[in-house]
Write a structure and sequence with these properties.
mainly beta; OB fold (Dihydrolipoamide Acetyltransferase, E2P); five-stranded mixed β-barrel; 2 helices; SsDNA binding protein; DNA-binding; Primosome_PriB/ssb; single-stranded DNA binding; NA-bd_OB-fold
Length: about 160
């Protein structure tokens, strides 16, 4: 017991590192694509992929609807990741890891604005878009329907 107690760091002990501390602002989102991602060229010649994700929040209201928060995301993915991202249709359920940054700017009307900018670092397509059923219920098809199976692999569509 004595050896274990001495092996643990003391409350007043300091840890030192030779690397500079880095700031961390990261977000993880699970939501549905608002539309198919689009490619836009930057002034440096690189392509940036932009898309929006809707994330349901809160409990359902009397009509069964939830509130939605919308997030705009940018990505500089290349290769198979870029191809997969661009092939995802509107409504795809996504898991996204992104760096978050608050930027201030002056709007055209002269007011000072602040915007949240998300730069995607990783993503995973979790399931295909919901397809409206033509049955009597009129609701979305169940999650066990083959059209709603999770996507797997880079070549999935």
């Amino acid at each position: 017991m004595f050896a274990l107690r001495n092996a643990l760091p003391r409350a007043g002990a300091r840890a030192f590192s030779t690397t500079a501390p880095r700031s961390l602002a990261k977000m993880q989102l699970i939501g549905r694509l608002a539309d198919t991602p689009a490619v836009n060229p930057t002034s440096t010649g690189r392509d940036v992929i932009r898309y929006a994700v809707g994330v349901s929040t809160g409990s359902r209201d009397e009509n069964g609807n939830r509130g939605v928060s919308w997030f705009k995301v940018a990505s500089f993915s290349e290769g198979p990741q870029k191809d997969l991202l661009l092939s995802l249709p509107k409504g795809t359920l996504m898991y996204i890891e992104a760096e978050a940054k608050m930027d201030s700017f002056q709007a055209q009307d002269g007011t000072q604005r602040t915007a949240l900018n998300l730069l995607q670092r990783n993503f995973e397509a979790l399931s295909r878009p919901r397809i409206e059923s033509s049955s009597e219920t009129g609701g979305p098809e169940s999650d066990t329907d083959p059209a709603n199976e999770p996507l797997s692999g880079v070549g999935a569509s």
